Amino acid sequence: MLVYPQINPIALQLGPLAIHWYGLMYMAGFLTFIWLGRKRIVALAGMPPHPAMPASPSNSHPQMTNKLLDDLLFYGVLGVILGGRLGEVLFYNPGYYLSNPLKILAVWEGGMSFHGGFLGVLVAMALFAWQQKLRWLELMDFIAPLVPPGLAFGRLGNFINGELWGRPTDVPWGMVFPRVDNLPRHPSQLYEFALEGLLLFVLLWFYARKPRPVGAVSGLFLIGYGSFRFLSEFTRNPDDGIFGLMTFGISMGQWLSLPMVLAGILMMIWSIRRTA
Fold it and tell me: In terms of CB atoms within 10 Å, which of 56, 96, 98, 168 comes out highest?
Protein backbone atom coordinates (compact mmCIF):
# COMPACT_ATOMS: atom_id res chain seq x y z
CA MET A 1 0.00 0.00 0.00
CA LEU A 2 1.26 3.46 -0.92
CA VAL A 3 0.45 6.84 0.59
CA TYR A 4 -0.13 9.93 -1.52
CA PRO A 5 2.93 12.17 -0.99
CA GLN A 6 0.89 15.33 -0.23
CA ILE A 7 2.55 17.49 -2.87
CA ASN A 8 2.14 21.22 -2.40
CA PRO A 9 0.01 22.38 -5.36
CA ILE A 10 1.96 25.68 -5.33
CA ALA A 11 5.30 25.21 -7.07
CA LEU A 12 6.66 28.69 -6.32
CA GLN A 13 5.44 31.56 -4.15
CA LEU A 14 6.67 35.05 -5.05
CA GLY A 15 5.02 37.35 -2.55
CA PRO A 16 1.32 37.47 -3.45
CA LEU A 17 2.00 35.62 -6.72
CA ALA A 18 1.54 31.86 -6.52
CA ILE A 19 2.69 29.68 -9.40
CA HIS A 20 0.74 26.43 -9.33
CA TRP A 21 1.95 23.07 -10.58
CA TYR A 22 -1.36 22.66 -12.43
CA GLY A 23 -0.65 25.74 -14.52
CA LEU A 24 2.93 24.61 -15.14
CA MET A 25 1.63 21.28 -16.42
CA TYR A 26 -0.55 23.08 -18.95
CA MET A 27 2.41 25.22 -19.97
CA ALA A 28 4.52 22.09 -20.47
CA GLY A 29 1.76 20.59 -22.61
CA PHE A 30 1.57 23.68 -24.83
CA LEU A 31 5.36 23.84 -25.26
CA THR A 32 5.47 20.14 -26.13
CA PHE A 33 2.72 20.78 -28.70
CA ILE A 34 4.93 23.38 -30.43
CA TRP A 35 8.04 21.17 -30.30
CA LEU A 36 6.27 18.12 -31.74
CA GLY A 37 4.35 20.29 -34.20
CA ARG A 38 7.57 21.55 -35.76
CA LYS A 39 8.83 18.00 -36.08
CA ARG A 40 5.56 17.03 -37.73
CA ILE A 41 5.79 19.93 -40.20
CA VAL A 42 9.20 18.66 -41.34
CA ALA A 43 7.93 15.09 -41.60
CA LEU A 44 4.84 16.06 -43.61
CA ALA A 45 6.90 18.20 -46.01
CA GLY A 46 8.59 15.06 -47.30
CA MET A 47 5.53 12.81 -47.18
CA PRO A 48 3.50 12.21 -50.35
CA PRO A 49 -0.31 12.14 -50.26
CA HIS A 50 -1.99 8.82 -49.55
CA PRO A 51 -1.37 6.61 -52.63
CA ALA A 52 -5.09 6.01 -53.18
CA MET A 53 -5.77 9.76 -53.40
CA PRO A 54 -5.07 11.57 -56.68
CA ALA A 55 -2.38 14.20 -56.35
CA SER A 56 -4.02 17.63 -56.30
CA PRO A 57 -3.94 20.75 -54.14
CA SER A 58 -7.16 19.65 -52.42
CA ASN A 59 -5.59 16.32 -51.42
CA SER A 60 -2.23 17.64 -50.22
CA HIS A 61 -1.18 18.05 -46.62
CA PRO A 62 -2.18 21.31 -44.96
CA GLN A 63 0.36 24.03 -45.75
CA MET A 64 1.47 24.36 -42.15
CA THR A 65 4.42 26.57 -41.22
CA ASN A 66 6.08 27.39 -37.91
CA LYS A 67 4.34 30.79 -37.94
CA LEU A 68 0.93 29.19 -38.52
CA LEU A 69 1.71 26.66 -35.80
CA ASP A 70 2.29 29.46 -33.28
CA ASP A 71 -1.03 31.05 -34.25
CA LEU A 72 -2.70 27.65 -34.11
CA LEU A 73 -1.52 27.20 -30.54
CA PHE A 74 -3.12 30.51 -29.52
CA TYR A 75 -6.49 29.35 -30.85
CA GLY A 76 -5.99 25.93 -29.27
CA VAL A 77 -5.22 27.40 -25.85
CA LEU A 78 -8.43 29.43 -25.95
CA GLY A 79 -10.42 26.37 -26.99
CA VAL A 80 -8.89 24.19 -24.27
CA ILE A 81 -9.32 26.66 -21.41
CA LEU A 82 -12.74 28.06 -22.30
CA GLY A 83 -14.21 24.76 -23.44
CA GLY A 84 -12.59 22.74 -20.66
CA ARG A 85 -13.85 25.03 -17.94
CA LEU A 86 -17.34 25.34 -19.39
CA GLY A 87 -17.46 21.57 -19.74
CA GLU A 88 -16.56 21.14 -16.08
CA VAL A 89 -19.24 23.63 -15.09
CA LEU A 90 -22.01 22.25 -17.30
CA PHE A 91 -21.24 18.52 -17.41
CA TYR A 92 -20.08 17.81 -13.87
CA ASN A 93 -20.76 20.50 -11.24
CA PRO A 94 -23.46 22.94 -12.38
CA GLY A 95 -24.95 23.19 -8.89
CA TYR A 96 -21.65 24.01 -7.20
CA TYR A 97 -20.64 26.68 -9.71
CA LEU A 98 -24.12 28.18 -9.72
CA SER A 99 -23.71 28.68 -5.97
CA ASN A 100 -20.08 29.84 -6.31
CA PRO A 101 -19.88 31.68 -9.65
CA LEU A 102 -16.49 33.28 -8.91
CA LYS A 103 -14.98 29.77 -8.66
CA ILE A 104 -15.55 29.37 -12.39
CA LEU A 105 -12.50 31.61 -12.89
CA ALA A 106 -10.27 29.63 -10.49
CA VAL A 107 -8.81 27.32 -13.15
CA TRP A 108 -5.55 27.01 -11.17
CA GLU A 109 -7.44 24.91 -8.62
CA GLY A 110 -8.11 22.23 -11.23
CA GLY A 111 -11.42 21.19 -12.68
CA MET A 112 -11.11 21.03 -16.47
CA SER A 113 -13.32 18.71 -18.50
CA PHE A 114 -11.55 17.00 -21.39
CA HIS A 115 -14.76 16.60 -23.34
CA GLY A 116 -15.57 20.30 -22.94
CA GLY A 117 -12.03 21.21 -23.97
CA PHE A 118 -12.31 18.87 -26.94
CA LEU A 119 -15.46 20.61 -28.16
CA GLY A 120 -13.79 23.98 -27.57
CA VAL A 121 -10.80 22.94 -29.69
CA LEU A 122 -13.07 21.70 -32.49
CA VAL A 123 -14.71 25.12 -32.66
CA ALA A 124 -11.38 26.97 -32.39
CA MET A 125 -9.82 24.85 -35.14
CA ALA A 126 -12.84 25.39 -37.40
CA LEU A 127 -12.41 29.14 -36.98
CA PHE A 128 -8.66 28.92 -37.59
CA ALA A 129 -9.11 26.75 -40.69
CA TRP A 130 -11.69 29.19 -42.10
CA GLN A 131 -9.45 32.19 -41.52
CA GLN A 132 -6.36 30.52 -43.00
CA LYS A 133 -8.26 28.77 -45.84
CA LEU A 134 -7.23 25.31 -44.67
CA ARG A 135 -9.25 22.11 -44.74
CA TRP A 136 -10.59 21.58 -41.23
CA LEU A 137 -10.35 17.78 -41.22
CA GLU A 138 -6.77 17.84 -42.53
CA LEU A 139 -5.93 20.32 -39.80
CA MET A 140 -7.41 17.97 -37.18
CA ASP A 141 -5.32 15.12 -38.64
CA PHE A 142 -2.25 17.33 -38.23
CA ILE A 143 -2.83 18.16 -34.56
CA ALA A 144 -4.20 14.79 -33.36
CA PRO A 145 -0.76 13.23 -32.62
CA LEU A 146 0.31 16.42 -30.81
CA VAL A 147 -2.49 16.34 -28.23
CA PRO A 148 -1.79 13.27 -26.02
CA PRO A 149 1.37 14.67 -24.34
CA GLY A 150 -0.72 17.62 -23.17
CA LEU A 151 -3.26 15.18 -21.76
CA ALA A 152 -0.44 13.38 -19.96
CA PHE A 153 0.76 16.60 -18.34
CA GLY A 154 -2.82 17.42 -17.38
CA ARG A 155 -3.19 14.10 -15.57
CA LEU A 156 0.06 14.75 -13.71
CA GLY A 157 -1.47 18.05 -12.66
CA ASN A 158 -4.52 16.18 -11.36
CA PHE A 159 -2.24 13.87 -9.37
CA ILE A 160 -0.24 16.74 -7.90
CA ASN A 161 -3.48 18.47 -6.90
CA GLY A 162 -4.65 15.23 -5.26
CA GLU A 163 -7.89 15.32 -7.25
CA LEU A 164 -9.77 12.77 -9.36
CA TRP A 165 -8.62 9.91 -7.13
CA GLY A 166 -9.63 6.32 -7.81
CA ARG A 167 -12.07 3.87 -6.30
CA PRO A 168 -11.14 1.70 -3.28
CA THR A 169 -8.99 -1.30 -4.20
CA ASP A 170 -6.90 -4.10 -2.73
CA VAL A 171 -4.19 -4.09 -5.43
CA PRO A 172 -0.63 -3.84 -4.01
CA TRP A 173 -0.12 -0.37 -5.52
CA GLY A 174 -3.32 1.03 -4.01
CA MET A 175 -2.70 4.54 -2.71
CA VAL A 176 -4.18 6.23 0.36
CA PHE A 177 -5.29 9.82 -0.25
CA PRO A 178 -5.42 11.22 3.31
CA ARG A 179 -7.62 14.16 2.32
CA VAL A 180 -10.29 11.60 1.30
CA ASP A 181 -10.10 8.71 3.79
CA ASN A 182 -7.76 5.92 4.86
CA LEU A 183 -8.78 3.45 2.17
CA PRO A 184 -6.24 2.38 -0.48
CA ARG A 185 -7.48 3.59 -3.85
CA HIS A 186 -6.51 3.25 -7.48
CA PRO A 187 -4.13 6.07 -8.53
CA SER A 188 -6.43 6.56 -11.51
CA GLN A 189 -4.76 9.83 -12.51
CA LEU A 190 -1.59 7.83 -13.26
CA TYR A 191 -3.54 5.21 -15.21
CA GLU A 192 -4.96 7.96 -17.39
CA PHE A 193 -1.49 9.51 -17.71
CA ALA A 194 -0.21 6.20 -19.09
CA LEU A 195 -3.19 5.36 -21.34
CA GLU A 196 -4.58 8.68 -22.62
CA GLY A 197 -1.18 10.33 -22.60
CA LEU A 198 1.76 8.03 -23.32
CA LEU A 199 0.16 5.04 -25.05
CA LEU A 200 -2.19 7.13 -27.19
CA PHE A 201 0.72 9.34 -28.24
CA VAL A 202 2.81 6.34 -29.33
CA LEU A 203 -0.09 4.88 -31.33
CA LEU A 204 -0.91 8.14 -33.10
CA TRP A 205 2.66 9.28 -33.71
CA PHE A 206 3.70 6.04 -35.39
CA TYR A 207 0.40 5.66 -37.28
CA ALA A 208 0.75 9.20 -38.68
CA ARG A 209 4.32 8.62 -39.90
CA LYS A 210 2.94 7.05 -43.10
CA PRO A 211 0.51 8.64 -45.58
CA ARG A 212 -3.06 8.13 -44.38
CA PRO A 213 -6.39 9.05 -45.99
CA VAL A 214 -7.94 12.27 -44.75
CA GLY A 215 -9.76 11.69 -41.47
CA ALA A 216 -8.00 8.46 -40.53
CA VAL A 217 -5.63 9.96 -37.95
CA SER A 218 -8.48 11.93 -36.37
CA GLY A 219 -10.60 8.77 -36.34
CA LEU A 220 -7.88 6.83 -34.53
CA PHE A 221 -7.58 9.62 -31.96
CA LEU A 222 -11.32 9.46 -31.24
CA ILE A 223 -11.32 5.68 -30.93
CA GLY A 224 -8.15 5.60 -28.83
CA TYR A 225 -9.03 8.34 -26.40
CA GLY A 226 -12.65 7.27 -26.02
CA SER A 227 -11.69 3.64 -25.38
CA PHE A 228 -8.89 4.41 -22.93
CA ARG A 229 -11.02 6.92 -21.04
CA PHE A 230 -13.94 4.49 -20.88
CA LEU A 231 -11.71 1.77 -19.42
CA SER A 232 -9.88 4.00 -16.95
CA GLU A 233 -13.17 5.35 -15.59
CA PHE A 234 -13.87 1.93 -14.06
CA THR A 235 -11.05 2.66 -11.59
CA ARG A 236 -11.83 6.34 -11.08
CA ASN A 237 -14.08 7.52 -8.29
CA PRO A 238 -17.29 9.02 -9.72
CA ASP A 239 -16.93 12.77 -10.02
CA ASP A 240 -18.54 15.00 -7.43
CA GLY A 241 -21.64 16.86 -8.47
CA ILE A 242 -25.16 15.90 -9.35
CA PHE A 243 -24.37 12.90 -11.55
CA GLY A 244 -22.10 10.25 -10.04
CA LEU A 245 -22.75 6.88 -11.64
CA MET A 246 -25.56 7.03 -14.16
CA THR A 247 -27.58 4.58 -16.25
CA PHE A 248 -26.09 1.04 -16.42
CA GLY A 249 -23.69 2.03 -13.62
CA ILE A 250 -21.32 3.99 -15.83
CA SER A 251 -20.07 7.51 -15.27
CA MET A 252 -20.60 10.79 -17.07
CA GLY A 253 -17.05 10.51 -18.45
CA GLN A 254 -17.91 7.12 -19.94
CA TRP A 255 -21.16 8.35 -21.46
CA LEU A 256 -19.31 11.27 -23.05
CA SER A 257 -16.61 8.92 -24.37
CA LEU A 258 -18.95 6.49 -26.12
CA PRO A 259 -19.94 8.96 -28.89
CA MET A 260 -16.25 9.64 -29.47
CA VAL A 261 -15.57 5.95 -30.11
CA LEU A 262 -18.59 5.66 -32.41
CA ALA A 263 -17.62 8.81 -34.32
CA GLY A 264 -14.05 7.55 -34.66
CA ILE A 265 -15.18 4.20 -36.08
CA LEU A 266 -17.48 5.90 -38.58
CA MET A 267 -14.72 8.32 -39.56
CA MET A 268 -12.24 5.49 -40.14
CA ILE A 269 -14.78 3.61 -42.28
CA TRP A 270 -15.51 6.77 -44.26
CA SER A 271 -11.81 7.44 -44.81
CA ILE A 272 -11.06 3.91 -46.00
CA ARG A 273 -14.07 3.69 -48.30
CA ARG A 274 -13.33 7.11 -49.75
CA THR A 275 -9.93 5.89 -50.93
CA ALA A 276 -10.91 2.31 -51.85
Answer: 96
Give the residue extent of every domain in the chain.
Answer: 2-41+63-201
Band (102; pLDDT cuts 50, 70, 90): confident
Task: Indicate if the alpha-carbon torsion angle 172, 245, 97, 196 is positive or negative.
Answer: positive
Q: Which residues contact 5 (CB under 8 A, 6 or more apart)?
A: none
pLDDT > 90? residue 256? no
CA 268 from chain center: how many Å? 20
| Alpha-helical segments (H) within the chain | 21-45, 66-87, 94-99, 114-132, 136-143, 148-161, 188-192, 200-207, 216-232, 252-275
What pLDDT is stored for residue 194 in this prediction? 97
User: What separation in angstroms does the CA of 44 have from each of 40, 112, 213, 235?
Assistant: 6, 32, 13, 38
Question: What's the pLDDT score for residue 243?
Answer: 54
